[in-house]
């Protein structure tokens, strides 16, 4: 189905984020249908988009919440996620954040270091509680994705390296207010070569065997998120191939009887249902380049500027003929460029432009640089 902006939104002041809730519902239906046969528990990664109307639908579909800050934990609870469906991850959790999550009795903390476990133990003891913990390991698996969003390599700041794991496990003997319930790994984001999940599974299999040799049988395995989406042809793949993703773990992960497997997907759930809608302010022809200057910029969608990411751009007002444009924003940075040399139907001032696949890591990464006003969200 080609992209369609509801007619009444064509009059809306730009820029704005448009969320297609029917598409979100279809995506959630596909996700839960693919997860059910293997009994996978899906925790949605709020960092991709934490807008309440989306969260409420995600919760209603039966997903849990994967949070990386006290603010996200609070938002998840506000959206109605049950505390025992909330996980708190992150390499730098503050005492205040931990205290609030403990008080809410969330399901699990994904812990990443001995100092963090010590703090968890201390703060849990002070509240007369026990913190349930999954150890985030660094499996040293290359996710073959952009360097900024690769997380499972030795050089990354995330997780406990495999060489250090024995020491970390030993430290638990002296931490009575910490209960080890699982292992956690996340190797990166926007992963399109799914074979890396087979490699991750094999590492986790080895680790489980090793842990069992030391007397630890874990009820939970969390394999992280990372399933990528099609930024180039969104309309051909509006719904990611969830069956292929879960299939990798079904095939390669040796699940113990009764063991729960958790995944924490963000992008694959919400990217395609969001579109950044903008207007052309000016078309400027320089000696070498024809610029379409939009009223949206890196302040509304930083991914192209930050990672060189591609987002599909459509002129919704013009039929052609097609000409090459550099599509740029109004911000005082040369990196404020959405695309270079992209073919668009002949474009003029006032044309409506859709920047697709902006539902994940779009609005949440918006900034007020250049004292820009926050662009609103509309839901249909
Ligand atoms: N779990 C952990 C521990 C994570 O660090 C992440 C993402 C996820 C789950 C969700 O990953 P997803 O399913 O969305 O790939 N701003 C970047 C992406 C940063 C991802 C950070 N971690 C971008 O715009 O591409």
Question: How would you concisely characterize the structure shown here?
Answer:
By secondary structure, the chain is of the alpha/beta class. Helix content is 27%, strand content 23%. α3 (70-78) packs parallel to α4 and α4 crosses α5 (114-126).
Report on the architecture of this protein.
The protein is built from ten helices and 17 strands. It has 380 residues and is α/β, with parallel strands linked by helices. The strands form two sheets. Strands 1, 11, 12, 13, 14, 15, 16 and 17 form an eight-stranded mixed beta sheet that branches. It has an eight-stranded parallel beta barrel with strand order 2-3-4-5-6-8-9-10. Bound molecules: ligand LLP. Ligand LLP is lined by residues 45, 47-48, 66, 89, 149, 151, 186, 189-190, 224-227, 264-268, 303, 307, 361. Homodimer. Specifically catalyzes the decarboxylation of meso-diaminopimelate (meso-DAP) to L-lysine.
What is the overall shape? elongated
Radius of gyration in whole Å, from Cα? 22 Å
The major beta sheet can be summarized as: 8 strands, mixed
Structural class: alpha/beta
**Number of DSSP strands?**
17
CATH superfamily of the largest domain: Alanine racemase
Number of helices: 10
**CATH architecture descriptor text of the largest domain:** Alpha-Beta Barrel
Fold-level CATH name of the largest domain: TIM Barrel
What share of the residues does DSSP label as strand, in percent?
15-25%
Q: What fraction, in percent, of the residue positions are helical?
A: 25-40%
Give the rounded overall mean pLDDT: 95
Bound ligand species: ligand LLP
């Amino acid at each position: 189905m080609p992209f369609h902006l509801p007619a009444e939104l064509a009059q809306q002041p730009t820029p704005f984020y448009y969320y297609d809730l029917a598409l979100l519902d279809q995506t959630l239906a596909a996700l839960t249908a693919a997860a059910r046969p293997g009994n996978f528990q899906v925790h949605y990664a709020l960092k991709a988009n934490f807008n309440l109307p989306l969260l409420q639908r995600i919760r209603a579909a039966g997903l849990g919440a994967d949070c990386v800050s006290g603010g996200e934990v609070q938002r998840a609870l506000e959206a109605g996620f049950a505390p025992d469906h909330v996980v708190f991850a992150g390499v730098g959790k503050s005492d205040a954040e931990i205290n609030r999550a403990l008080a809410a009795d969330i399901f699990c903390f994904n812990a990443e270091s001995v100092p963090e476990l010590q703090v968890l133990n201390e703060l849990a003891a002070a509240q007369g509680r026990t913190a349930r913990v999954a150890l985030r390991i660094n499996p040293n698996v290359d996710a073959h994705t952009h360097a900024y969003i690769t997380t499972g390599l030795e050089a990354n700041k995330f997780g406990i390296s495999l060489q250090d794991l024995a020491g970390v496990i030993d430290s638990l003997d002296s931490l009575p207010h910490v209960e080890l319930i699982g292992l956690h790994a996340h190797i990166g984001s926007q992963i399109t070569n799914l074979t890396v999940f087979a490699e991750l599974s094999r590492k986790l299999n080895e680790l489980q065997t090793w842990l069992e040799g030391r007397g630890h049988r874990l009820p939970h395995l969390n394999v992280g998120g990372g399933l990528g989406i099609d930024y180039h042809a969104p309309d051909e793949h509006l719904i990611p191939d969830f069956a292929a993703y879960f299939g990798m773990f079904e095939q390669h992960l040796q699940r113990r009887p009764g063991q729960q497997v958790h995944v924490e997907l963000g992008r694959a759930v919400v990217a395609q249902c969001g579109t950044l809608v903008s207007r052309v302010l000016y078309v400027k022809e320089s000696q070498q380049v024809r610029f379409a200057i939009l009223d949206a910029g890196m302040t509304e969608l930083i991914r192209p500027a930050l990672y060189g990411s591609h987002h599909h751009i459509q002129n919704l007002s013009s039929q052609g003929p097609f000409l090459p444009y550099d599509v740029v924003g109004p911000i005082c940075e040369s990196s404020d460029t959405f695309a270079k040399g992209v073919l668009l139907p002949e474009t003029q001032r006032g044309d409506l432009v859709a920047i697709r696949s902006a539902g994940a890591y779009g609005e949440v990464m918006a900034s007020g640089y250049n004292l820009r006003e926050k662009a609103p969200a509309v839901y249909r």
